[in-house]
From TrEMBL:
InterPro entries: Pur-cyt_permease, Uracil/uridine/allantoin_perm
Name by which UniProt lists this protein: Cytosine/purines uracil thiamine allantoin permease
Cellular component annotations (GO), alphabetically ordered: plasma membrane
PANTHER family: NCS1 FAMILY NUCLEOBASE:CATION SYMPORTER-1, NCS1 FAMILY PURINE/PYRIMIDINE TRANSPORTER
Length: 507
């Protein structure tokens, strides 16, 4: 019988790996949440993680959607690069506490939210991962639809949601989505050592297909590609580019916040930073160039701008090329889902009840929830894509702001690791009945202020502009409010106490 530990190992993680001390409270502890006994990931492992995470249909579609803002190709490229450098900077910030203590994100959050209050960010982040799980599964199923329609043209009527559809998705789309959902669920449930190789294949495979696709389109366009594309620009170029940069950060806000789940395996913080540099600015530069040039080349070749790689592949005359291209994007997106949208909710939901919710159950919670969200309605055109990213960013930003303010400004990069796993009232992270009021209040206020522009931006122009910066608003407000509440007033946090035999780690 293959257990949850095999699944962790297959997904690129050591089996279990956590060292549970005798005084750790079982209500806060299992082998996946406990501090790692060995941290062995090199910079290459971190780089490979980012390569798998970046090279997805979702990443391509999001980058392509920036053309709808009215930007030229070179302006889209600059926005993508500036955005990814910001992501790299924030990833390094969120990586350090987890790498330092050897614990995943929801456990690190116990230092700022309290040992019980950490369930608040864990559940929020878990629900967001569920949304992304559904979105990536839908995008993979859309690529599979292309293959099926090319091989079996008689299925065309069933691809029309107006004729045969339910909740906005066609019958064929439902079948493809269900097939991929079941395949992924089987992988989660059974666990397979070969998944490690499968994921290693995904990133490079997409690169090969994208290089071939880009070269083909450039050849068809006689190597003449215009850099003036996109819709009508609203406002100044600088303002629109800043909005595009914010969208890039919002797109990566999930993996950015999740990154502690992976940086905990890094053998050193220096190795993590090097892996981030190779996997984000360097790798993303190549990916962005391919996206920009490929999208720009679709105009002279097909007579219109195509920002979806699957749709672009579908326009090619060669059936074999369409099938191979679409299947590659499908497989790659599934691989990304396994890495990015299963590992994190498994940690999050396990953190809520370590003894009752296993990795398997955490994955299945994410899988079931992803269907209920009807993800095809969250990512079906540029306007909806931006709305989805802005909404998710409004809730992720505050979690990030609180964590960074606590670790770097309040606690001065120090963590009493053993106190993350104790329910005793004398522990550093017990606060008020297991909850830290400054963290909870800062998160609520930050999220509310960040989501208001998203919800009412269509009615008020000024709010519409602010909506693009929902992640930054939520992060900034929560960061500042938490720092003020935690350093002065009735909720001021006391200095860390170190009990006899307790382990203190610091940067």
């Amino acid at each position: 019988m293959v257990g949850a530990g095999d699944l962790v190992e297959a997904s690129g993680h050591p089996v279990g790996g956590g060292v549970i001390k005798s005084h750790y409270d079982p209500r806060l502890t299992n082998e996946d949440l406990a501090p790692l006994g060995k941290q062995s990931w090199s910079s290459y492992n971190i780089f490979a993680f980012w390569m798998s995470d970046v090279h997805s249909v979702g990443g391509y579609v999001t980058a392509g959607s920036l053309f709808a803002l009215g930007l030229a190709s070179w302006q889209v490229l600059i926005a993508l690069l500036v955005g990814i450098v910001i992501v790299q900077f924030f990833c390094n910030l969120v990586a350090k506490p987890s790498q330092q203590a050897g614990v995943p994100y929801p456990v690190v959050c116990r230092s700022s939210f309290g040992v019980l209050g950490a369930n608040i960010p864990a559940i929020i982040r878990g629900l967001i991962a569920v949304a992304w799980y559904g979105i990536q599964t839908y995008l993979a199923s859309a690529a599979l639809d292309v293959v099926l329609l090319k091989l079996f043209p008689a299925l065309t009527p069933y691809a029309d949601p107006e004729q045969y559809g339910f909740t906005g998705l066609s019958l064929l789309g439902w079948c493809s989505f269900a097939l991929l959902w079941v395949l992924q669920a089987c992988v989660f449930w059974r666990g397979m050592e070969s998944i490690r190789k499968f994921i290693d294949f995904c990133g490079p495979a997409v690169y090969v297909v994208m290089f071939i696709l880009c070269g083909y389109l450039l050849y068809r366009s006689d190597w003449h590609v215009s850099l003036t594309l996109g819709g009508e620009k609203q406002g100044s170029t600088i303002a629109v580019m800043l909005g595009a940069i914010a969208l890039v950060v919002s797109y990566f806000s999930g993996p950015m916040l999740n990154f502690g789940d992976f940086s905990r395996y890094g053998k050193s913080f220096a190795a993590v930073k090097k892996g981030n540099f190779l996997g984000l600015p360097v790798n993303f530069l190549v990916f962005s160039l391919l996206v920009v040039v490929t999208a720009a080349a679709t105009v002279p070749v097909f007579g219109e701008l195509l920002t979806d790689p699957v749709e672009t592949v579908a326009r090619i005359d060669n059936t074999m090329a369409i099938v191979l291209g679409a299947l590659t994007f499908t497989i790659a997106t599934i691989g990304i889902n396994i890495v990015a949208n299963f590992i994190s909710p498994a940690f999050d939901f396990s953190n809520v009840s370590p003894q009752k919710i296993s990795w398997r159950m955490g994955g299945m919670i994410a899988a079931v929830g992803s269907v209920l969200l009807t993800p095809w309605n969250l990512y079906n055109n540029p306007e909806v894509i931006h709305y989805t990213l802005e909404t998710l960013g409004a809730f992720i930003g505050p979690l990030f702001g609180v964590l960074i303010a606590d670790f770097y400004l309040v606690r001065k990069q120090k963590i009493v690791v053993d106190d993350l796993f104790t329910m005793t009232e004398t522990g550093n992270y017990w606060y008020t009945k297991g909850y830290n009021p400054p963290a909870v209040l800062a998160t609520v206020v930050g999220a509310v202020l960040a989501v208001i522009p998203v919800l009412f931006g269509s009615a008020v122009d000024a709010l519409g502009v602010a909506a693009q910066y929902s992640w930054f608003i939520g992060c900034g407000v929560s960061f500042a409010l938490f720092y003020v509440l935690a350093t002065r007033g009735p909720w001021r946090m006391s200095a860390l106490r170190l009990a006899q035999g307790a382990e203190l780690v610091e940067g």
